[in-house]
Give the backbone structure.
Amino acid sequence: MSAIWHPFTQHGLNEPVPLVERAKGAALYTRDGARVIDAISSWWVTTHGHNHPRIVAAIRDQAERLDQVIFAGWTHQPAETVAEGLRALMPRELTRVFFSDSGSTAVEVALKMALGFHAHTGTGRSGIVVMEHSYHGDTIGTMSVGARGVFNAPYAPLLFDVGMIPFPLGDGDNTLSAFEALCRETHPAALIVEPLVLGAGGMLFYPAQVLAQMAEICRAHDVLFIADEVMTGWGRTGTLLACEQAGVVPDIVCLAKGLTGGALPLAVTMAREPIYAAHLSTDRAKTFFHSSSFTASPIACAAAAANIAIWQDEPVRERIAALARRQAAMIDRLANLPGVANARTCGTIAAFDVTAPDGGYLSTLGPRLLAHFREADMLLRPLGNTVYVLPPYCLDEQDHARIERVIESALRTLLP
Ligand SMILES: *Cc1c(COP(=O)(O)O)cnc(C)c1O
């Protein structure tokens, strides 16, 4: 028996844990000889497809040159190339690039930058405002700014207080008026949101207009606007950043998952110049004190540089648009099936809820759906009774049709 304690896995349920030996494009190949379609991009990280030859070559090449070097006060070419590439690709107001190694750390860094900005400019502000149902990671800080519930109930005593605004309904007046009131009454330091799509909260979508108005309220009240684009970034919602669709440039942006095309762990937190400037001083006490051992790993940076080059020279946006059209067509068909509610798409993400008497993450339907998909060699991992398809951009029509057939058969088999 394996000694491994897996993440988000209840070992007491004795579910099988398949062993994956290799991957290519949208497929995973298991030791048992199965070809499994990776319909959730291995937890939202794989963008172009597994083992993209350019990313693999960049990793191999870099590994032979420089494996690791301290990043405090030292630098290396792969990191410089990534920073230049990000400056060229991302909104030009985002002038500074801070490296870390996961989405959670990118968010922690964003929160520390925001607090550092307010501390060093003497505003006296420190409160954080968050949106209901949000997810920003699993560290103590990121759990604090995320939804409270079954995922973090035992740790509640360690989580800090935040201001909470409701998830937008309709035109989002409920959210905007609550946010405006919080800004007036509590003078928060920052708002952190997942733009357009709340991922782990259940693939909940809200209109770009609401995002634009939240950013406007931030500006009017001198509240920093932090966009957690860890899941939505790198084309997932149809544009490079989801914020583009609202025509807004955040003060701070968190990027991770697809930064290396999903091949290696790496994250960046990008900030506007005034946030950097607030830390810039001859006073060493104003240094931005954040690091981890593997900050800006050269090998991970080489993978990210290859990803950025792919964005620059391959028709990635066209691939995304084509996938988004096929996802929308699939969702139109699935929406007519009995048991399907709230069928929705946002860019390359398709989602719907299965009508279950006990909705929510611990819905008893979830494990049954999961087992059905696993037996059909399909990597789909419903969030409770919400089924979503979030594939690599290389998914072809044949595999897409197979995903649809497997979902249809799950609904036929599992619903009364
Ligand atoms: C996945 C995710 C994170 C956490 O990223 P990790 O790399 O898993 O730490 C943070 N924010 C959002 C929106 C995410 O989807």
In short: The pocket of pyridoxal-5'-phosphate is lined by residues 102-104, 107, 135-137, 194, 199-200, 228, 230-231, 256 (CB under 6 Å).
